[in-house]
Amino acid sequence: VQLQASGGGLVQAGGSLRLSCAASRRTFSSYAMGWFRQAPGKEREFVASINRSGRGTYYADSVKGRFTISRDNDKNTVYLQMNSLKPEDTAVYYCAAGGLGYSHYEYSDWGQGTLVTVSS
Known about the structure:
By secondary structure, the protein is mostly beta strands. About 0% of the residues lie in helices and about 50% in strands. It is built from no helices and eleven strands. The strands form two sheets. Strands 2, 4, 5, 6, 9, 10 and 11 form a seven-stranded mixed β-sheet that branches. Strands 1-3-8-7 form a four-stranded antiparallel β-sheet, with no helix packed on it. A hairpin with a 6-residue loop joins β4 and β5.
């Protein structure tokens, strides 16, 4: 499945952004989806994931209570609503398909990434 992420940008600390990831296939609803991020000089890390129905969601401790993952299977799109952003949230954010866990090895397809910069 091809994935196209969008919605990144520059925001002040405490602000909000919503990332979107559009999938190319009508079988989108058969894929669990996830968001990862990678800051400069750091490894890619898990942010959140959502199961196929959207009723099961999982978060990294660092974003729990601030970020919300959701999906619209009719629009073949997964979202990441990010609130109360912190400078340490600055990273390139990637959407991924095919997995649900914390390891990026579980995911088979990746979007191109969208940059989120949070200024202090």
